[in-house]
Amino acid sequence: MNDWYNHNETEKSKNGLTEAAYDLFNTGVYMYVTCLDLEGVLVPEIWIAFAEETGIPEFRRTTRDEPDYDKLMKFRIALLKEKGLGLKEIQATISKIDPLPGAKEFMDELRSIGQVIILSDTFTQFAGPLMKKLGYPTIFCNTLEVAPNGEITGYKLRQSNGKFHAVKALQSIGFDTIAAGDSFNDLAMIKASKAGFLFRSTEKIIKDNPDIPAFTEYKDFLNAIKNVLNS
Ligand SMILES: [Mg+2]
């Protein structure tokens, strides 16, 4: 256990810092960035909510079912076109979505003890209202191509395998990373990180990756991250 852990409240307050800030600036925690997936981890799956809202079950397919993201997005875009639906309809659904119960509190505490970046395969046009509800954490995601009439015509990835490259880039400037997510597309960043976790993942992914600790409750998840930060 690091020394700072044993400092009492009086000693901490003498420094004129909050406890969290004291801990952050007096330990190696500063060397870590925690990289989190968004959908399924902090907020519900947007496309599943959209499937429920529209009553079109084919929209339920997510990266948890289809590992090939390009194939999945092309399927979604073709289905939207076929059904005459566009960005406006999806944003109307998103405006009704709240973060998963406990997600905001989890993020607030995690961000008080270290740096956090959300690495998501969602799109800027979807993420905005959800980021407001999470207190505007940092998020790196992708962009949709939208025609003036609101039709979604395509999507633009910043780079392929972006979550993996983001953790590698953070490591290249001297950070260790902790990564966590629920889907196939999170495994590369999890495996490339100093520590990685599955959160509310599928039975199959958990079974196929027995070496990655898996959690379903924020309290246990946060404790696991804290254990890495304090190790
Ligand atoms: Mg996810």
At the fold tier of CATH, the topology name of the largest domain is Rossmann fold
Question: Which runs of at least 5 residues are low in confidence (pLDDT < 50)?
Answer: 1-7
CATH superfamily of the largest domain: HAD superfamily/HAD-like
Discrete helix count = 11
Taken in chain order, the helices and strands follow as HHEHHHHEHEEHEHEHEH
Query: Which class of secondary structure composition applies to the elements?
Result: alpha/beta
Tell me which CATH architecture of the largest domain applies here: 3-Layer(aba) Sandwich
**Helix percentage range:** 40-55%
What coarse outline follows from CA principal-axis ratios? Answer: globular
Q: Supply the CATH class of the largest domain.
A: Alpha Beta
Number of domains: 2
Ligand inventory reads: magnesium ion
What quaternary form is this? single chain
Alpha carbon gap, first and last residue: 7 Å
Backbone CA Rg? 19 Å
Strand content: 15-25%
Largest sheet: 7 strands, mixed
Look at the structure and give the mean pLDDT.
Answer: 89
Number of strands: 7
Summarize the structure.
This protein is of the alpha/beta class and 231 residues long. The protein contains 11 helices and 7 strands.
Descriptive key words:
alpha/beta, thrh gene product, domain 2, Rossmann fold, binds magnesium ion, seven-stranded mixed beta sheet, 11 helices, 231 residues
Describe the 3D structure.
The protein is of the alpha/beta class. It has helices at residues 9-14, 19-26, 46-54, 69-83, 87-94, 103-113, 124-133, 162-172, 187-191, 203-208, 218-229; strands spanning 32-36, 115-123, 138-146, 152-156, 176-181, 195-199, 214-215. It has a seven-stranded mixed sheet, with helices on both faces. α9 (187-191) links the parallel β5 and β6. α5 (87-94) packs parallel to α7 (124-133) and α6 (103-113) runs parallel beside α11. Mean pLDDT is 89; it is low at 1-7. The structure holds magnesium ion. Magnesium ion (MG) is lined by residues 37, 39-41, 181-183.
